[in-house]
Design brief:
Keywords: Plasmid
Strand order of the largest sheet: 1-3-2
InterPro entries: DUF2786, DUF7168
Strand content: 5-15%
Mean pLDDT: 78
Radius of gyration: 23 Å
Largest sheet: 3 strands, antiparallel
Distance between the termini: 26 Å
Number of strands: 3
Shape: elongated
Helix content: 55-70%
């Protein structure tokens, strides 16, 4: 049954390519469009489903220094939630830390772009805040750096999750896409376990400073990278 459905989807994609712009006559293009409409109706399909099944998957990786990489996983998970893709990070203790996104090509690319904006903001704001701790003992500086980054990560994660609009009624395409992504990961032999054990340091004053810094990061550029806008808008509205 799955093989039959796949063949029907392939046939629909071929018919949709039969246009005047691609060398067909107007009569041939009209006939092809009529066949597409008939196949969709006979097999209870939509063009959205055809498009989703024909869109390639891609994986985007980012390498980050240890202090930011060990704390930005919460931000990465929020970004994956917003962009409708999967994410994972390298094992604890591996440096540099690698964050990976996997999903439909345009969505994983947008996710990586937004992560780059957040990691750069965390790096720059930490550098500015650390100047005030320059005379503290090394262990105090480390504690403050960690708490500050925890605060920024929690703040950015919350803000990014809030950007996703409510799902409209009828989520069949969302379920379909999620299933296709999971099936592709399984085909690639990729399985994951959650091994995170650390918790954010919310007691240090620098955590509050990090939260405040995270509130000031402009996230709009991450939603509108060059020639990538349509993908995220579409995924958010499905």
């Amino acid at each position: 049954m799955a093989d039959k459905r796949s063949k029907i989807l392939d046939r629909i994609r071929l018919l949709r390519n039969m246009t005047v712009d691609r060398g067909c006559t107007e009569a041939e293009a009209v006939e092809a469009a009529a066949k597409v409409a008939r196949l969709l109706a006979e097999n209870d399909l939509t063009l959205d489903e055809v498009e989703i099944r024909s869109t390639p998957f891609s994986r985007e990786d980012a390498s980050l220094e240890a202090d930011i990489g060990e704390r930005i996983w919460a931000v990465a998970e929020a970004i994956a939630y917003l962009a409708d893709c999967r994410c994972w990070s390298s094992a604890t203790g591996v440096v540099p830390v690698r964050i990976s996104f996997f999903g439909l090509a345009h969505e994983s690319e947008i996710a990586a772009y937004l992560l780059a904006i957040c990691s750069r903001a965390m790096r720059d704001d930490l550098s500015r805040a650390a100047r005030e701790w320059a005379l503290y003992r090394p262990n105090v500086q480390r504690r403050r750096r960690g708490a500050f980054l925890d605060g920024m990560a929690d703040s950015l994660s919350r803000r990014i999750r809030a950007l996703k609009p409510p799902r409209p009624p009828g989520q069949g395409l969302v379920v379909l896409k999620d299933g296709l992504i999971d099936a592709e990961l399984e085909n690639l032999g990729m399985k994951f376990r959650d091994l995170r054990v650390r918790r954010p340091n919310v007691l240090d004053d620098s955590y509050v400073e990090g939260v405040a810094a995270g509130e000031q990061v402009p996230l709009d550029p991450g939603l509108r990278p060059p020639e990538r806008t349509a993908g995220l808008v579409a995924s958010g509205g499905r």
